């Protein structure tokens, strides 16, 4: 299978899902990924696709579990170790035993080890899938923590139990002591390798960080390779690679807390990269689930309708049994740490949280990967009932997702929104307007001031308003008013006193020509063609002028003496006066628009049309200036810092006066931080 084609199709699937999600926002994203994956299965690349468990565990699950470990505090793990062991090991083992005996009792042809293998396959839960299915609801914090801690290690528990069951099927016997010893070796060995390997990698990373000037590339690359190296090392030692990468992730969490504010650039960049990788891999997980479903469907059609109904019934009973085990376990947990997860015992809150915990036992692609990991040959014999086990596991996955997608939104309250998108946009716009007014009052350089203004205005986004018609009408009105303002300003006594009539007349003609071009310009392709045509005419005229000028100077050497050329001197004087008048008009127009902006801000009115008009006239002034002055403004980065500080002050003032909630302020603080980081990067590139 061509790797490039596979990666490209998966990325196309992710993009397609994000586009489809905009049209059907009520459908959980998980199901959209699965449906898109089913669509991808019809491509030649994924036709008859069967999930390769070893590759899947290494490339997808290992990085995700490493990241999950990084998000867990070592202090919390130490404090709640007993509860984690109960959730991830004891609950998983009890569920596996119960499901195993149920399956063996219903399917009498299945030996008990085979039924235990099926039970081990359906044990792992997927907290990421639960979050996707409950995106619009408020899951109780304690239940959410319990689900995350449960899924942190129960994948490894299921894998170890599956390995034990396959060993019994292969060898025909296994004593209880041997089973426990094997479990301790695999699980404990994985944790030990993860801890030792994690500390070794942390030591290497720390030395590189503190002893080199630019450690970013090396340290981040080591971080990206860490889960793969640890997983392969643990698996080669016949221990649990999943537990190893989780343990290494926890060690790396300890490292980040130790570094504190040291090497902030490395930590921020590394966090951003890992968040993006996690987002992509979580999407790939559900895409692969959808891609694999048609293969399972082919196996369903192969065994017949009656046999399929029997397997569906078994899958339903397995799901109900696991639901009952989870509910009973959560309901009758003793006080102590369980109280933090489910609330006081024998209360309605405790019962409700136990029911939510039981319903949230969603199974995902790890279960399907474990099902496909069943060998075709075991003990020199064909693996018995392999297709049936894969079918049951798939039905349990789909059943758990469907039940959770339907039941949890009905059980849980809707997520409380502390602010709306409209409030965010309005507050952001007010913040930007405040910063623009503050910075424009302090800056004297016109070109630098307009550069900073446009930069800040871009924070509003290219679609700062949805009422296009109203803004367009307001823009046209203000544009016409500004034209009138310029005409009156040019006829004012100070201007007529400072500049000769022919200079004012020439400037009026230039501005009239620019306004006519503005009125005649169309949108879309027509405007693009006009711009290209205008640029070509300018190039031709410039080339013709250079040829005529060269010919004239060649035939009239005396004309090169500008001091003795009255026409040239008059031309230079006209240019100087035009540039000075253009700067004066520029200053007057922007001062007029600043006053209007301040009035709009005070009255809490929309200011989008002011920016559009300012940008249009600044473009005209720049065109006049660019014809004779090609210098580009250089903006001191301190002005940007002051502008962002003004935005911080605005948000702080809004919070202090209870005009906006803290959550909205946090969102704006994040935007300001990101904008400031981006601006500093751009400044470094331009330096």
Radius of gyration: 35 Å
Cα end-to-end separation? 46 Å
Shape: elongated
Quick check: average pLDDT? 82
Quaternary state of this entry equals: single chain
Poorly predicted spans = 521-525
Q: Which range does the strand content fall in?
A: under 5%
Give the count of helical stretches: 27
Largest sheet: 2 strands, antiparallel
Number of strands: 2
**Fraction in helix:** over 70%
Q: Which sequence of strands runs across the widest sheet?
A: 1-2
Order of helices and strands: HHHHHHHHHHHHHHHHEEHHHHHHHHHHH
Broad structural category: mainly alpha
Topology (elements, then pairings):
Blueprint: H1 3-21, H2 29-40, H3 53-70, H4 74-79, H5 81-106, H6 112-121, H7 127-133, H8 141-171, H9 176-211, H10 216-236, H11 241-259, H12 264-303, H13 305-331, H14 337-342, H15 348-359, H16 365-372, E1 377-378, E2 381-382, H17 386-411, H18 421-442, H19 446-457, H20 468-490, H21 493-498, H22 501-520, H23 524-555, H24 566-602, H25 608-626, H26 637-656, H27 662-686
Antiparallel strand pairs: 1-2
Helix pairs in contact: 1-2, 1-12, 2-12, 3-10, 3-11, 3-12, 3-16, 5-6, 5-8, 5-13, 6-8, 8-9, 8-11, 8-15, 9-10, 9-11, 10-11, 10-12, 12-17, 13-15, 13-17, 16-17, 18-19, 18-24, 18-26, 20-25, 22-24, 24-25, 26-27
């Amino acid at each position: 299978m061509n790797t490039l084609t596979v990666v490209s199709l998966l990325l196309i699937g992710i993009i397609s899902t994000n586009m489809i999600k905009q049209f059907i926002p009520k459908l959980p994203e998980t199901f959209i990924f699965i449906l898109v994956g089913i669509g991808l299965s019809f491509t030649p690349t994924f036709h008859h696709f069967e999930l390769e468990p070893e590759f899947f565990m290494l490339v997808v699950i290992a990085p995700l579990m490493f990241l999950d470990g990084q998000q867990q505090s070592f202090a919390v793990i130490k404090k709640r170790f007993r509860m984690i062991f109960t959730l991830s090991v004891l609950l998983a083992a009890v569920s596996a035993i119960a499901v195993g005996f149920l399956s063996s009792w219903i399917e009498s042809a299945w030996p008990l080890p085979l039924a235990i293998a099926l039970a081990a396959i359906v044990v792992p839960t997927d907290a990421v899938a639960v979050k996707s299915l409950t995106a619009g609801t408020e899951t109780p914090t304690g239940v959410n923590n319990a689900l995350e801690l449960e899924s942190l290690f129960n994948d490894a528990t299921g894998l170890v139990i599956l390995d034990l069951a396959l060993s019994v099927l292969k060898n025909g016997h296994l004593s209880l002591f041997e089973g426990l010893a094997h479990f301790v070796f695999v699980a404990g060995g994985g944790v030990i390798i993860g801890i030792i390997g994690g500390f070794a990698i942390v030591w290497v990373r720390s030395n590189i960080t503190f002893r080199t000037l630019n450690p970013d590339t090396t340290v981040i690359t080591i971080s990206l390779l860490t889960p793969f190296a640890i997983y392969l090392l643990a698996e080669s030692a016949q221990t649990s690679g999943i537990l190893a990468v989780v343990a290494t992730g926890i060690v790396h969490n300890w490292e980040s807390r130790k570094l504190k504010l040291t090497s902030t650039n490395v930590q921020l960049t590394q966090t951003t990269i890992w968040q993006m990788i996690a987002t992509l891999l979580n999407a790939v997980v559900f895409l692969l689930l959808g891609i694999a479903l048609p293969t399972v469907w082919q196996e369903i059609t192969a065994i017949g309708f009656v046999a399929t109904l029997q397997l569906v019934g078994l899958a339903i009973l397995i799901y109900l049994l696991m639901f009952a085990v989870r509910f009973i376990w959560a309901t009758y947990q003793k006080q102590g740490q369980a109280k933090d997860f489910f609330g006081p015992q024998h209360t309605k809150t405790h019962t409700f949280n136990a029911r939510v915990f039981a319903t949230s036992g969603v199974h995902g692609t790890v279960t399907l990967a474990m099902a496909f990991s069943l060998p075709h040959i075991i003990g020199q014999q064909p693996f018995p009932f392999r297709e049936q086990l894969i079918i049951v596991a798939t039905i349990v996955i789909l059943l758990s997702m469907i039940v959770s997608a339907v039941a949890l939104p009905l059980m849980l309250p809707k997520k409380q929104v502390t602010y709306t998108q409209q409030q965010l946009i309005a507050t952001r716009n007010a913040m930007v307007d405040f910063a623009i007014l503050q910075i424009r009052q302090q800056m004297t350089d016109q070109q630098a001031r307009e550069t900073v203004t446009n930069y800040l205005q871009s924070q509003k986004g290219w679609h700062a308003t949805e009422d296009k018609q109203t803004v367009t009408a307001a823009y046209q009105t203000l544009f016409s008013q500004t034209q009138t303002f310029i005409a009156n300003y040019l006829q004012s006594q100070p201007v007529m006193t400072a500049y000769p009539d022919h200079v004012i007349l020439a400037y009026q003609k230039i501005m009239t020509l620019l306004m006519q071009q503005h009125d005649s310009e169309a949108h879309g392709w027509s405007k693009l063609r006009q711009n290209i045509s205008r640029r070509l005419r300018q190039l031709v005229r410039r080339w013709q002028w250079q040829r005529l000028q060269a010919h004239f100077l060649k035939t009239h050497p005396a004309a090169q003496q500008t001091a003795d050329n009255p026409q040239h001197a008059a031309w230079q004087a006209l240019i100087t006066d035009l540039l000075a008048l253009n700067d004066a008009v520029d200053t007057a127009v922007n001062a007029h628009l600043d006053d209007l902006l301040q009035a709009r801000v005070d009255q809490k009115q929309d200011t989008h049309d002011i920016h559009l008009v300012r940008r249009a006239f600044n473009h005209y002034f720049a065109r006049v200036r660019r014809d004779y002055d090609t210098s580009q403004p250089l903006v001191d980065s301190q002005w940007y810092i002051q502008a962002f500080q003004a935005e911080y002050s605005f948000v702080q003032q809004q919070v202090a006066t209870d005009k906006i909630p803290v959550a909205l302020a946090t969102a704006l603080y994040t935007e300001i931080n990101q904008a400031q980081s981006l601006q500093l990067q751009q400044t470094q590139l331009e330096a």
